[in-house]
Amino acid sequence: MNNKKSFIAIFCVLFACNLLFSQQTKTVVEKFNLGKEAQTEENFYLAQQYYLEVVAINPAYSQAWYKLAECSYKLGEYELAQNYLTSAEKYEPSNSQYLNLKGKIFVSLGKLSEAKDIFNDILKKSDKTSEEYAQAMMLKLILGWLKLNYTKVVIQVQKSNITKL
Q: I need a surface site. Which of 9, 88, 139, 140 has the fewest CB within 10 A?
């Protein structure tokens, strides 16, 4: 009889734990989806709030970290975006989706040589018909244009300084 009571008590505890865990998981997924919805509506602050709640519950939720990085990037918070992206990469290091955003962040932070390396890496690894390839090619062209125009400005300044002498 004592074994039967123990079995029932253990069963009840396990059932309660399972119920709590499934509700928490559902809450995490619901919050993540609410964040995606807010992000789609370009309500980036609200989306960030949902994603922060998700990673507070499950710090290993790499897609929530990535979405936080996307929102921060859109809000012009580039260093914060880089930090969030680093967290996403910690939990899912081989996700190629992260490279493109990392390159954009580097461009925004003025780290053009690092961005160029990332875009070259994307171009080597990606299928030429993929969206990542197209974005990397476009951004690499922009980087080339920026470098060209920067060089032109430097030459004009140098010419201006020479004529003043």
A: 9
CA–CA separation, 70 and 73 (whole Å): 5
d(CA 20, CA 27): 11
pTM (global) more than 0.85: no
**Which of 124, 62, 137 lies closest to 98 in space, CA to CA?**
62
Give a yes or no: residue 161 inside a domain: yes
pLDDT in tens, 67-77: 999 999 999 99
Structure tokens at 86: 């680093």
Return the closest-CA partner of residue 61 out of 70, 69, 49, 51.
Answer: 51
Residue 100 lies in a domain: no
- Count of structural domains within the chain: 2
